[in-house]
């Protein structure tokens, strides 16, 4: 069983079955990418793991524990969304402190942890700024700091770089990878960009129309795609 494990997860919205039986595991400490075209159910799967959506049927496990019916707050999972992630009316400090304040951590501890985390993402000098005063890349680094300041074991990143321009994206990919390893967070990174998946992941799970088409290491996926869809999407097939 993976550190994160989905067992035959189905999710429907009305008559629209979006997840059609997902069984997949992510190894402890790995960065796994969920790769697939827009609309295939990637965000829905992350939201089911975070508890923001209820699964229709199936089970979700973290560290061997069935969390299918656990409330989002008690899942200890950090999440970064595509964009507009930050609270616009709160300063950088207040944004990063949010989760710690929810946990009622003592004020001096909140201050120490927020400062430490801003150092990790290289934004100490922005502590009193507001989101609108920051670039897109800086905002996503704050969102990352906010997601991991409470020390989650699992980190979910839903296309966090898709609104960032290509030049900056690469350095942010490297930075996210470094932080993920440093904090040893088992991470699922959602993307529709196969190049990003190749750079970012220990394991790739290729998603197609609510199902996992193929899972493997980047090299396996690139050199031995098992279906025409996988070959077409990963890009070694001409
Ligand atoms: P992806 O992240 O791969 O682009 P999503 O998981 O966002 O795909 O969406 C998959 C499908 O589920 C889409 O058809 C979308 O319209 C539908 N969907 C997602 N969330 C909801 C919702 N809250 N209510 C109804 N349909 C939804
Ligand atoms: Mg999505």
Automatic annotation (TrEMBL):
Transmembrane segments: none annotated. GO terms for cellular component: ATP-binding cassette (ABC) transporter complex. The keyword Hydrolase does not apply. Coiled coil: none annotated. It is an enzyme of class 7 (translocase). Keywords: ATP-binding, Nucleotide-binding, Transport. GO terms for molecular function: ABC-type quaternary ammonium compound transporting activity; ATP binding; ATP hydrolysis activity. Its EC number is 7.6.2.9. The keyword ATP-binding applies. Residues 4-234 form the ABC transporter domain. This is ABC-type quaternary amine transporter. It comes from Enterocloster lavalensis. The lineage of its organism: Bacteria, Bacillati, Bacillota, Clostridia, Lachnospirales.
